[in-house]
Amino acid sequence: MVTAPNLERSEELNEAQPQLGGETAPECRQTETKSVKILAPGAAFKEAARKKANTGPSGKGKDGKAGRGKLKRKRPLPPGQRLLRAFAVASLLVGGQSFFSPLTGPCENSRAGASPLVPIAAPFSLSAPLSELRREIEANCQLKKLTPGVFVVDPKSGAYVDFNGNRSFAAASMIKVPVLVALFSAIDRGDVDPKQILEIKTEHVAGGSGYLQYRPVGTKLPLMQVAELMIIISDNTATNMIIDLLGGKEQVNKKFTAWGLKNTVINNPLADLTGTNRTSPYDLVYLLARVERGDLMSDTWRQRMRKIMERTKTRTLLNQGLPPGAKLAHKTGDIGSMVGDTGVVTTVDGRKYIVAVQVQRPHNDRRANELIRKLSGIIYTAFASQPTVKPVTPALAQPGTGAPAASTKVEGGAAAPGGESGPGPVLEPASDMSH
């Protein structure tokens, strides 16, 4: 007869360890040789299951011999060792997750896909805030129901002015500037052949500005001609063809994010008259400054990009505030809810500044267009005289420090070479065309 203590210990072993087969522990062998067992309540079922698991269909053990197969039970680890094992497993899981899914970096934009994990150095030093100029801009922007955004910088001196520069606006056709940068950057890397021929597809055709919408589907054109049409006459169909060539809006948006643009995204094909595609004055100036610095393409393609932007047909906004002899490589945008212009200005004596102005407005409110013309003249007068002003750091800037002695303003603009602007009435294209 087996004593109760031995039987209780046998049940504890059965519950604590799985039956793996093999050599039976001494306590178990002693128990199994007896003809009579005293089992704890409810243990009969467990005992029967154990016998069945260790006995073949012929009544012999799994090793072919009479009786039950041999068992080998492992002793449970002490509580301290089990805790250490659990901690090690948890550490491996956390480490594996960090390896396969890195934490979001400081420049990552989840809205637009992949992005770099390290900050990108700005292409200019904002060392000299022009406080007086900003106050003048703000005073002129106090127009009911108009929301302007302005960002201007001289990359060499660090002189700048920021008025709602990081505000998100509808992009309209100003989105074509980053699209052109994406194209020329891809060509410069060898990812796109500039001599290839593109074909108009049904999904490319878009209303608004441009004449490719009237060409039959299947019409073929050289890539560089399509790129020029996108900027010079703001052709929406041409823009959609280039976005498609670059892999679609998702791939183009990834490029925008990788470049460091925070507010620039393509959500829908052109013409996008409702303004779902977005950008900001700061993003546009930042991108043009990186191009000017030579970051995103070689000098050959940078020069070609500038020459195309100098031929932009719509000259009713920033151009109107520039004096004769000044040059502007730019791109406008014009839909019902927003009008804007961005570009690189070269002054009469060869100095450069980069500017972007966008104005959110009630539908087709022409006060916004007039405001951009007026601000262009104020900005030109200020920045044309900046080399005579010592740059200051933002921490030392005082109200009025670094502002130019603007004794005159260029209001409405004078006639520029080649008829780019004039003092007379300004003729503008129809709105809602996504220019």
Describe the fold and architecture.
By secondary structure, this protein is α+β, with helices and mostly antiparallel strands. The protein folds into 2 domains: 1-76, no CATH class; 128-419, Beta-lactamase (3-Layer(aba) Sandwich), CATH 3.40.710. It has helices at 4-16, 26-32, 43-53, 79-100, 131-140, 176-189, 223-232, 236-245, 249-259, 281-293, 299-310, 367-384; strands spanning 128-129, 147-153, 159-163, 169-170, 197-199, 220-222, 278-279, 327-335, 338-346, 352-360.
Strand content range: 5-15%
Number of domains in the coordinates? 2
Task: Give the termini distance in whole angstroms.
Answer: 101 Å
Apparent shape: globular
Name of the CATH homologous superfamily of the largest domain: DD-peptidase/beta-lactamase superfamily
Radius of gyration, taken over Cα atoms and rounded to an integer in Å: 37 Å
Low-pLDDT windows of residues: 1-36, 62-67, 98-118, 391-430
Annotation field: number of helices: 12
Question: Approximately how much helix is present in the residues?
Answer: 25-40%
Do you know the CATH topology of the largest domain? Beta-lactamase
Largest sheet: 6 strands, mixed
Reading side by side through the largest sheet, how are the strands ordered? 1-3-2-10-9-8
- What is the number of strand segments? 10
H/E element sequence? HHHHEHEEEHEEHHHEHHEEEH
The second-level CATH architecture of the largest domain is 3-Layer(aba) Sandwich
